[in-house]
Each structure stands twice: as structure tokens, then as C-alpha cells.
Amino acid sequence: MDASFGTVWEGVAARLPDAIALSEPGRDTTYAEFDDRAARLATALEAAGVRAGDTVACYLHNGAAYLETVFAAFKIGAVPVNANYRYTREELTALLADADAAAIVFSGALAAHVTHAAAHVPTLRLLVRDGPAPDDDPGPDAPELEALLAATDPRPATPRPGTDRLFMYTGGTTGMPKGVVWQQSDLLHSLAVPVFGPLGAAALPDTLDDAVALAAQARATGRAPVVMPVVPLMHGTGLFNTMGALLVGGRAVTARAGGLDPRHVWETVAAQRVSMIIVAGNAVCRPLVDELVAAERAGRPHDLSSLRSVLSSGTALGDELKRALHDRAGVTVTDAIASTEGGPYAFAITRSGADLPSRFHPVPATTVVTADDRVARPGEVGVLAYSGPLPLGYHKDGARTATTFRHIDGVRYAIPGDLAALEPDGAIRFLGRGAAVINTGGEKVHPPEVEEVLLAHPEVTDCAVVGVPDATWGERVAAVVAAVPRPGLARELQDLARETLAGYKIPRTVVVVDRLPRTPTGKLELAWARRVAASGAA
């Protein structure tokens, strides 16, 4: 099937015009309205000089406007670009400059940061504001989205090929984020199994008509997913899986803008009959589980009867939280090891508490390779390599593209640097990113292994294990944990780790903090954790 996401969505909208595509607080949008609004924004983009191949930045909170902007860009062959809504004005400007952004659609609450970009990014030709801006700092002069759509005619649908592109900036924990360039046909193929598989299709539909017919059948039989990305849509897991739901006649549900409100999330799940939520490991799932427990104790348990699936990616999701979900709902928890650069590499899928402890099993396109590009034997540590549908590479960075996307025996792999060990039964043990490995007296410690043990303590809500300088051992293991401080907790955590880990892996320092400052995608700045751990050691 040689078609862009936007072309498939246009076909679904034509077949299911009155079906609800998007639900946000206070408003439902049908597929016909979704298509019409995106077509009007596409006209405005073209009128401003945005052309196929130009980039359109989405500096938006979760909501219909985000997906409408992506759809509008797809309609004209422009390239949607995610912009982290927590960026400072300088970070936003740097990203837009790197992307050569031709247009930006931004949430009104973020208007102040856009002023700087408008003055410093010469490629910007159109700025559109979604919603009111603060009175004290209204940001740049920009048309408001609703007024712009009302004053603009919809652009006629024009089929676009699968060679059209999408940028997904992957926010590293240090340095400038990297723009991963996906060709839409490759991204479509990467979503074939999780999106079309549950509907009985073994592969991507052969034609556009087949895809639309499958979506219509899924909607008619009640099998179309109702997906709620609890993670931001600027997160690849949130956006890609939401885009996939719309391919098959599903519905995307978003919560109100602002920080994570667990009670609001569960109330929305019940009210909108959400069948899948998308989370990012412990950082997102822990508050959700805490709310479920608190609601039960208060005599107001949440209705989870519609929920069938929980998808997590981006950071670790502990078995304790999986068990809590299984105990309260008939859900399948899919924990994915994936990256913006490719994958998913492996899944740990549990359908009940009986499936715990969970273990990751690689997909057929995944292997573990050693430093000399040899397939790892059981017990050996290597890096995850994926040979399925892959991005074209990094935007403006040929050297890094060549390092990450490598050819081994004539096969192209994505190898971002995630360490893993192959188990005798074919499962894999994920060991984290290579740069985070702690070398203590010549012994290698992989932080995720230690973090998993510490997170099993009922008082620990989040955790980061890092190496801090040590005059004798080079580095020693230290942990920064989120918990309510109390005497003896640090020793309890060390004793807990000692039960299952070798002595050199035990944190010599444990620093207790209220919370770990993670990004919306679950990432933690390791430099911050090392500073906190070092100050605790001092």
C-alpha cells in the first residue's frame, strides 16, 4: 500500500464521516470534522508558502489540535515535527532552527516562548495559536486557530505517497535532541502487527481500499480501539500508536491540558469507555495505580470495565505495578523495549498476575550483537539490533546516522546502544544504555538491574542508579530514590538489594528525595542524578 497516513485517514473519513475520531474535554470531533479542519489548516499552510517537504512544528499539549496539525501537514506532503512543550524559549528556538521549521502551531499557554523563536528562526512563515494566551505575555502576533479555520476554505483531498516523511525528535537526557526522519511507508509497516494484527490482518493491507474496508468493519463490529495517550503526543509511543488507532477507525481520547491528574485520567477512561491507555513506565503508571488504591480505600473505586490494554514504553514498568493493574482489571499489559530509531525490539506481555515475573522476548527482527558484530551467545552482553522497518536516519547528521544505522552481513540494523543479554531460553535481559554502565573496580554494573530491585520496596515510587567518583574504585554505585524520608530507609534498601544482587552492585549511597524530575517521556537527566548522589555521598 503506497499511501501516506493522511491519505488513509481521508479514506476512513469518507467511509465513516459521522463516527467520532477525537474526544477531548468538552468536545467530540467526527472523522468528517477532523478531515475538514485539517483541510482548512492545510490551505492556510499552503497560502503561507509551506510546501511538500517543509517542516511544521507541533508545540502543543495533547488535544485535537495536535492531531489536526499532523493531518494538515500530511495533506500537503509537509513534515510534522514534535516540539517538547517543556522546552525553554532557547531550546525551542534551537529545535525549530535545526528543523528549518516553516510553520508552528502552538498552545496559547506556551505563547511566551514562541516570541523568541519568531524573532530568531528566519524560515518560519506561519505561526498559529491554539487557545488564549496569557494576558501578561500574549506572545507573537499570530492568528488564532479557530478563527483561521473559519476564514479558510478546505483544501481538496489529494492522495499522497508513502515516501512522504515525518520527523520525531528524540529528547536525550543531555545535549541537543536528535531528529529521527521516518518515511511514512516504513512507519506504516512498523505498526502493521500492533495496529492491524488485532483485527485479524496478518500484514499491512495491500491497497488503500482494503485498509478503509478494514477500518469500517472494525468500527461496525465494535473492535476499533478507543485509545488514550496518557503520555504526551510529542512522545513517539503516544503519537505513533494514536496515529495507528485512527488508521483502523478508532477513537483518540485526550485528557485536559496540564500535569498528570490520575483521578481525571481514570474518570475519563470510564466516561469515554477507553479500551487502551498508553503510559511511560513507572513514572506515569505509579501515580495512576496510587489513585486506584486511594479511590478503593475511599469507597469510590474507578470503573475499569472498558479497559482491555495498557501499553508502556520509554522506561521501566515494574512487576509490582503490573500486578496492581491485573488485580483490578482484565487487561493485557504490553511492556515494550523500543526507541524512536526503530523497534520495538522486545515485548514483555502479561495477561494476568500468573504471568509475573514478566520477561522480555525479542521480536523476530531483533538480535543481540557483540562489539565485534557477532550474534551474542546466551549469557553474553551485547547491544540490541533491529532489522525491521527503519527510519532513514538522523536529520542533518550523517556521522551519527552511520553509527546508529549500521550494515552487518548486508543487513541494515538500528543499534542505538541499548545493552542486553540473551538468556538460554531466548528471552532477553535489558541492561540499559551503554553510557550509563557503572565501572566499579573493574566490575560492570547495569543500573536497570539495581533499579528494579529498589523499586520493589513499597515506599519507593521512583529511582535512579548512577555511578559517582570514588578514589579507590573509580566509581561506586549510588541511588537516588523518591520516597517519604524516614530513619532507616536507606539501610533497608541496601539490605533489600543485598538479598538478590552481588555485593559490588549494592548502592553505597542512597539519597532520598520527594520526586525525580522526569521529562513527559519519562526520561531523567542523569547529570542531575549524579550531582544529587555525589552531594549525598559528600
Describe this structure in words.
With 538 residues, the protein is of the alpha/beta class. Among the domains are: 5-184, Rossmann fold, CATH 3.40.50.980; 437-538, GMP Synthetase, Chain A, domain 3 (2-Layer Sandwich). 34% of the residues lie in helices and 25% in strands. The chain is built from 17 helices and 27 strands. The chain has a nine-stranded mixed sheet with strand order 2-1-10-9-11-12-13-14-15, sandwiched between helices. It has a four-stranded parallel sheet with strand order 4-3-5-6, sandwiched between helices. A four-stranded antiparallel sheet has the order 16-17-21-22. α2 packs across α3 (64-75) and α11 (262-272) crosses α12. It is globular and about 70 Å long. The N and C termini lie far apart (60 Å).
Instruction: Work out the oligomeric state of the chains in this entry.
Output: single chain
- Enter the CATH topology name of the domain at 5-184: Rossmann fold
Counting DSSP H or I runs of 4 or more residues, the number of helices is: 17
Q: What value does the average pLDDT take?
A: 92
User: Any idea what the CATH architecture of the domain at 5-184 is?
Assistant: 3-Layer(aba) Sandwich
Stretches where pLDDT is under 50 for at least 5 consecutive residues are: none
Structural class: alpha/beta
What is the radius of gyration computed over CA atoms, rounded to a whole number of angstroms?
23 Å
Tell me the strand order in the biggest sheet.
2-1-10-9-11-12-13-14-15
Give the DSSP E fraction (strand runs of 2 or more residues): 25-35%
* Strand segment tally: 27
> Which CATH top level class of the domain at 5-184 fits?
Alpha Beta
Helix content: 25-40%
Overall 3D geometry?
Answer: globular
Largest sheet: 9 strands, mixed
Distance between the termini: 60 Å
